Amino acid sequence: MPDSPTVFALLVAAGFLAGWVDAVVGGGGLIQLPALVLGLPGAAPAQLLATNKLASICGTSVSAATYYRRIRPDLRTALPMAGAAYLGAVGGAFVGLHIPKSAFNPVILVLLVVVGAYTLLRPDLGKVTELRHSGTRHTSYAVLVGLGIGVYDGALGPGTGSFLVFALVGWLGYAFLQASAKAKITNFATNLGALTVFVPQGQVLWVTGLAMGAANLVGGYLGARTAVRLGSGFIRAVFVLVVGAFIVRLGGAVLGVWP
Questions:
Q1: CA–CA distance from 190 to each of 3, 43, 95, 194 (Å)?
Q2: Is the model's pLDDT at 23 over the cut of 70?
Q3: Cα angle, residue 153 at apex, residues 150 and 158 outer, rounded to 5°
Q4: pLDDT digits (tens, 9 = 90+) for 112-136
Q5: Nearest residue to 249 (alpha-carbon basis) of 21, 30, 15
Q6: How far, in Å, CA of 49 to CA of 101, rounded?
Q7: What pTM value is reported for the model?
Q8: pLDDT for 171-203, tens place per residue?
Q9: pLDDT surpassing 70 at residue 104
Q10: Angle at 248 between CA 245 and CA 251, to 5 degrees
Q11: How many CA atoms lie within 13 A of 165 on its CB side?
Q12: What is the pLDDT of residue 1?
């Protein structure tokens, strides 16, 4: 538990905002995990990761269901991708048990700079679905994306949804809306995979995680409905804005400008 009611309330607010952002473009963990690091300075890195996963799975479950009802993403791609992501996250979570806090920000920052730059340099990226592969090759690439990002999500986690959206748009050729729908299904699987390891290890801070999870769920529901209503152009704009904000935030932390 946080030291004060004010900190607890701020963590719940971070959970709500993270849920909204995660449902639209992914990357809610880049709000939620730093909030946990600041709000629970005495917690071990594995406890922070585990509690973040508990809160996140609440939001990804409802946003995945909302996207599925309204967008009907092709499960022939989404389910194999999610299955591989689950296995990757299980393996990554064992790595995450031994990762120091100091490793979080530099790794995530480099990935975000690459993703943001590529998206800005390709203004037509993600406007419409133009698949670059078909058949078995398409499914195989989707499985590779799920497996690789699943390992990352189990080990670190922040930005997973954004990286999934980027891979689905930039590599496989989906529009942002379809990519977000598949990313949410896959992100649910990665959260579940990480919790499969963290819960038996006793790493979850349940009271904080469930409170943030309830807020994350509400944010995820509202974010998914907003994204479905406003479409790929809106999602791309939010994606660029969110990635840029995270680069500034994490870059400042790495350079010691702010904590």
A1: 30, 22, 14, 6
A2: yes
A3: 145
A4: 888 788 878 877 777 888 888 889 9
A5: 30
A6: 10
A7: 0.86
A8: 999 999 999 999 999 999 999 999 999 999 999
A9: no
A10: 140
A11: 35
A12: 64
Alpha helices in 25-74 (DSSP H): 29-39, 45-71
CB of 239 closer than 8 Å to CB of 23: no
Q: In the block, which residue shows the tokens 């309830």?
A: 214
Please give the Cα distance from 146 to 247 (Å, whole number).
Answer: 24
Structure tokens belonging to residue 241: 């804005």
153-180: burial string, b at 16+ Cβ within 10 Å, e else: bbbbbbbbbbbbbbbbbbebbbbbbbbb
Which two three-digit tokens encode residue 36? Answer: 């946990």
Spatial separation of the C-alpha atoms in residues 202 and 205, rounded to whole Å:
8
Cα separation, 125 vs 106, whole angstroms: 26
Q: What is the pLDDT confidence band of residue 101, given thresholds at 50, 70 and 90?
A: low
**Span 202-223, pLDDT tens digits:** 999 999 999 999 999 999 999 9
DSSP 76-112: HHHHHHHHHHHHHHHHHHHHHTT--GGGHHHHHHHHH
**Closest CA relative to residue 70, chosen from 189, 223, 173:** 223
- Rounded to an integer, what distance in angstroms lies between the CA atom of residue 18 and that of residue 217? 10
